């Protein structure tokens, strides 16, 4: 709930101890609100200047405090501080709309708006929305339920704006579309809904805390499962390593003749020994055969040598020689027989050699076959052993995998428990991950426990003081709308007995204020320190010349409406305030621009007029002054005179300067001059506009048609001695925003094109 400033009071206004005692007076907090507003502002300025007020400076309290209306009727309107125009949240508006909204928002207390019903509802809607956007809490009062529903229907469409509807005691039920904005709907019903939500939130918070604590207990078995998983994983890796190294290991065992292992290695070793014995026998037989082969080869070589020697001998014998003689002497010749014998022996030796070679080949083949058979048998035995051992390892791996799957299911279930309570845990967590999860879980558990306690506190608060809580809920509603008859009866607009410590609203926007009695003004004044009263200052709508309204098409561009028939001329409270505080600067008469220089309406019976000596087209109207000396009350300009030309004439001839601001001012330093710019009006000039000379080095850019014209820019020439400080002081003195405005006026005939005044008269 935003803090609102307290109404003007006596903060820091403590009487000085050394001052002599003055007349008896009521306490300051009782006296100050009863003073006229101009006196209040004077005393505040005096206190700010001197640091306090003496008892002599304090006025005495009247026997009966004046009413709200009486205090403003007793005030000097010219002594009241002018509104300080503020920037609007929605700046895309015509200047007449921007000005009245900006000025009314910037008014420190009372602002009056003269409008018909259509314009009043549109203006009140916009003003309430802008005030709420500026952080204010606004009460919009209407003469009846229909106007309240119309404003509510428009504001309810504003995004992010809480709007309430105050209901009068005898009002019929609201339409369903608006019923959700009543005090019951936004107070009691919201409280009931809040209680339901808090109860549900407490249940959710308790369930969350229980889940976190359960997850904390699940960490212990999760750690144990993770440890088992690690050990089994290491065992599995070892088995896989053994399985991969199994062929080399079995082969190594089979070839290790020094191994003492029984079983497979012993069988391989025994078979190798048998095989070695068989090979030894075969090798021994082969050695015998080899010896025989050598003997047979030697024998065959000798027989061949002997045969060759015998053949050489036979070739050396000649017929008739000694040999023949001896052969004849001793018997027949023996060489052929010997050769034949040698051939027989050679053939027998060759056969024996062939038989020995065949026997050697047989033994070699047998040895090779035995060796191959042994190797085949050995390989078969090794492969069988590898297969047997592989099967055994695979069975162990299968058992481990089954156990690992079961453990991983446990880990996955524990991980899902952690994820379910918002603790991050990877798919394959490690011990470090579980440590981090435990830390995170502890923090979440602490926060969940605090949330449970906080929710319990809210539940206790919602059930402790229902009236106080409903009041706080209703204070969150930024704009409350309702008929005046709802005041004091609807919870939105009920002031507790004894009055509030501060007004419940920042501003009251009162539509139809002209229909209410003076006592109603005092009642409404209790609800806020700022008031915007919207009403009609007369019954019906007089002509434009009498009212001098801004906005030729009415507020928000409403179509001009013809004059209503003038009824009774009763003097309402709103009309009294309007006539006391309103100042009309410009009006028109028969197409002629009229500048009003006095506050009072012109009394034609006491007024005199005469043309200007230098320019007969300009008419001066005089009224008797305080000392019966005639004073200029009005200046009537020739037809088609522009407002800029009229302003130049008034400033030059009468020293009358009229700057009409439109919203807040922006300052610019353009090098050779300083410029005060009212963007709401300047945006409409589109580079055009007319200029009026107001003082040496001071020029005003005017936009709009008479009398509905606005000041867009005022420039101050540095060559004429102007600077930013002097220019700001000049604008503050001459550009005071009004405290009253009139929104609509009836249709008027279009004015002819303007002309400019020249020194010698009027030029077309």
Q: Give the CATH superfamily of the largest domain.
A: P-loop containing nucleotide triphosphate hydrolases
Q: State mean pLDDT (0 to 100 scale).
A: 80
CATH A-level architecture of the largest domain: 3-Layer(aba) Sandwich
State the CATH class of the largest domain: Alpha Beta
Structural class: alpha/beta
State the major sheet. 7 strands, parallel
Outline: elongated
Low-confidence regions? 1-26, 540-554, 557-568, 745-764
Q: Nearest-angstrom radius of gyration? A: 62 Å
The name of the CATH topology of the largest domain is Rossmann fold
Give the count of structural domains: 4
Tell me the distance between the termini: 61 Å
Describe this structure in words.
The protein is α/β, with parallel strands linked by helices and 764 residues long. It folds into four domains: 1-66, no CATH class; 95-191 and 466-584, Rossmann fold; 260-407, Helix Hairpins (Orthogonal Bundle); 620-737, no CATH class. It has 19 helices and 19 strands. The chain has helices at residues 28-31, 37-50, 68-73, 95-105, 117-133, 145-155, 176-179, 183-255, 264-315, 322-330, 335-420, 431-464, 466-475, 518-525, 544-547, 573-581, 643-654, 679-685, 724-734; strands at 110-114, 138-142, 163-165, 479-483, 507-511, 531-535, 586-589, 592-596, 608-611, 619-624, 630-636, 666-669, 673-677, 690-695, 698-705, 708-717, 740-742, 757-758, 761-762. The chain has a seven-stranded parallel β-sheet with strand order 3-4-2-5-6-1-17, with helices on both faces. Strands 7-8-11-10-9 form a five-stranded antiparallel β-sheet. A five-stranded antiparallel β-sheet has the order 12-13-16-15-14. Strand 5 (507-511), helix 14 and strand 6 (531-535) form a beta-alpha-beta unit. Helix 4 (95-105) crosses helix 5 (117-133), helix 5 crosses helix 6 and helix 8 (183-255) packs across helix 13. The radius of gyration is 62 Å and the shape is elongated. The two termini are 61 Å apart. Residues 1-26, 540-554, 557-568 and 745-764 have low confidence and may be disordered. Residues 286-313 form a coiled coil. Residues 1-25, 546-569 are annotated as: Disordered. Keywords: Coiled coil.
């Amino acid at each position: 709930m935003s803090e609102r400033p307290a109404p003007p009071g006596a903060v820091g206004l403590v009487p000085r101890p050394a001052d002599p005692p003055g007349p008896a007076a009521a306490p300051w907090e009782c006296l100050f609100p009863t003073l006229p507003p101009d006196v209040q502002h004077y005393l505040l300025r005096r206190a700010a200047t001197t640091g306090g007020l003496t008892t002599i400076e304090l006025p005495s309290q009247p026997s009966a405090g004046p009413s709200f209306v009486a205090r403003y009727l007793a005030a000097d309107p010219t002594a009241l501080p002018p509104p300080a125009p503020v920037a609007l949240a929605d700046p895309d508006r015509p200047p007449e709309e921007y000005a009245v909204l900006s000025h009314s928002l910037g008014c420190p207390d009372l602002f009056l708006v003269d409008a018909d019903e259509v314009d009043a509802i549109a203006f009140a809607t916009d003003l309430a929305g802008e005030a709420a956007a500026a952080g204010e809490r606004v009460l919009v009062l209407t003469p009846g339920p229909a106007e309240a529903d119309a404003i509510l229907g428009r504001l309810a469409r504003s995004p992010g704006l809480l709007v309430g509807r105050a209901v009068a005691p005898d009002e019929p039920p609201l339409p369903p579309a608006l019923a959700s904005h009543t005090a019951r709907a936004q107070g009691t019903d919201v409280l009931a809904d809040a209680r339901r939500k808090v109860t549900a939130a407490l249940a959710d918070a308790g369930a969350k805390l229980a889940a976190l604590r359960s997850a904390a207990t699940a960490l212990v078995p999760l750690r144990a499962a993770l440890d088992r998983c690690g050990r089994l994983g290491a065992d599995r890796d070892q088995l896989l390593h053994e399985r991969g190294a199994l062929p080399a290991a079995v082969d190594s065992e089979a070839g290790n003749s020094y191994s003492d292992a029984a079983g497979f290695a012993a069988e391989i070793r025994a078979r190798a020994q048998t095989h070695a014995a068989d090979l030894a026998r075969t090798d021994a037989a082969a050695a015998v055969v080899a010896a025989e082969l050598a003997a047979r080869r030697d024998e065959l070589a000798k027989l061949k040598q002997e045969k060759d020697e015998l053949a050489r001998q036979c070739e050396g014998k000649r017929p008739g020689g000694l040999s023949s003689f001896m052969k004849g002497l001793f018997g027949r010749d023996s060489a052929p027989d010997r050769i034949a014998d040698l051939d027989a022996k050679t053939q027998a030796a060759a056969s024996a050699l062939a038989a020995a070679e065949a026997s050697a080949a047989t033994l070699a083949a047998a040895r090779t076959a035995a060796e191959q058979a042994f190797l085949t048998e050995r390989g078969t035995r090794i492969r069988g052993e590898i297969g047997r051992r592989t099967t055994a390892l695979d069975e162990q791996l299968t058992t481990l995998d089954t156990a690992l799957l079961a453990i991983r299911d446990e880990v996955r279930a524990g991980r899902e428990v952690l994820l379910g309570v918002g603790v991050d845990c990877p798919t394959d967590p490690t011990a470090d991950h579980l440590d981090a999860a435990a830390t995170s879980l502890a923090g979440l558990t602490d926060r969940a426990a605090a949330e449970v306690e906080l929710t319990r506190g809210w539940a206790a608060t919602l059930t402790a003081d229902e009236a106080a809580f409903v009041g706080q809920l209703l204070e969150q509603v930024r704009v409350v709308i309702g008929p005046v008859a709802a005041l004091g009866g609807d919870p939105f607009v009920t002031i507790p007995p004894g009055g509030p410590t501060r007004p419940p609203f920042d501003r009251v926007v009162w539509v139809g204020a002209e229909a209410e009695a003076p006592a109603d003004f005092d009642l409404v004044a209790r609800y806020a320190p700022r008031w915007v009263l919207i009403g009609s200052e007369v019954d019906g709508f007089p002509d434009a010349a009498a009212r001098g309204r801004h906005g030729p098409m009415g507020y928000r561009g409403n179509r001009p409406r013809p004059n209503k028939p003038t009824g009774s001329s009763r003097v309402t409270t709103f009309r009294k305030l309007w006539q006391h505080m309103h100042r009309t600067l410009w009006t028109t008469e028969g197409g002629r621009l009229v500048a009003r220089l006095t506050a009072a309406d012109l009394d034609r019976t006491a007024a005199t007029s005469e043309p200007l000596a230098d320019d007969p087209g300009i008419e001066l109207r005089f009224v008797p002054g305080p000392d019966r000396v005639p004073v200029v009350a009005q200046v009537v300009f020739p037809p088609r005179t522009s407002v800029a030309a009229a302003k130049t004439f008034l400033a030059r001839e009468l020293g009358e300067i009229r700057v009409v601001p439109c919203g807040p001012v922006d300052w610019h330093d353009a090098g050779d001059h300083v410029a005060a710019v009212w963007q709401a009006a300047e945006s409409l000039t589109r580079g055009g506009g007319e200029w009026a000379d107001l003082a040496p080095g001071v020029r005003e850019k005017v936009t709009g048609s008479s009398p509905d014209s606005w000041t867009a820019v005022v420039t101050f020439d540095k060559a004429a001695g102007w600077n930013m400080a002097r220019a700001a002081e000049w604008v503050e003195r001459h550009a005071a925003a009004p405290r009253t405005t009139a929104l609509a006026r009836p249709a008027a005939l279009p004015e002819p094109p303007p002309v400019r005044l020249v020194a010698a008269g009027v030029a077309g």
